[in-house]
Design a protein that fits this description.
Strand content: 25-35%
Number of domains: 1
Distance between the termini: 8 Å
Number of strands: 9
Helix content: 10-25%
Structural class: alpha+beta
Number of helices: 2
Largest sheet: 7 strands, mixed
């Protein structure tokens, strides 16, 4: 199977009215290709994840807000802890896992919600979760990050 950036979710980027200094996106390269399958991240199958054991570059954050603007659905967010029980920042692998679980929660919360999107190809209940990939997370406001999601085409 392969996917491409053409299969990216056409999410609107979250807009915040407060000024912030955006950080570079956190990208997830798996076996040399941008993107990790969500089900693999959730299961901890990250042997091919580049720099999986390095600390996630979320400088000083103990908690972040994950924002999803999936086309056809209400804007959705969830607060996430991004430090372990020893107050050490999560590794890139653990961050991928937590973000993937959050996307799974979003999909579950919206599985029975009728999409307002005229293009049904991004309706949550019509896309197998197994076909979704996490490419990166973007810093969209102070303390808020938005996942960039793709799917197998």
């Amino acid at each position: 199977m392969s996917y491409s950036t053409q299969g990216r979710s056409p999410q609107e980027v979250y807009q915040n009215t407060q000024p912030h200094q955006p950080r570079p996106p956190v990208q997830f390269f798996n076996n040399g290709v941008l993107g990790i399958r969500l089900v693999d991240a959730i299961a901890g199958h990250v042997s091919g994840l580049h720099e999986a054991g390095t600390l996630a570059p979320l400088t000083g954050a103990n908690r972040i807000t994950c924002r999803i603007n999936w086309p056809g659905y209400e804007s959705w967010s969830d607060g996430l802890h991004v430090v372990d029980h020893n107050t050490q920042p999560y590794t890139l692998a653990r961050l991928a896992q937590v973000i993937a679980k959050t996307i799974q929660k979003f999909c579950g919360d919206n599985a029975q919600v009728r999409t307002r999107e005229p293009r049904a190809d991004w309706a949550v209940n019509s896309i197998p979760f197994e076909s979704l990939y996490l490419l990166e997370i973007r810093h969209v406001s102070s303390g808020s990050w938005q996942p960039v999601i793709s799917r197998v085409l």
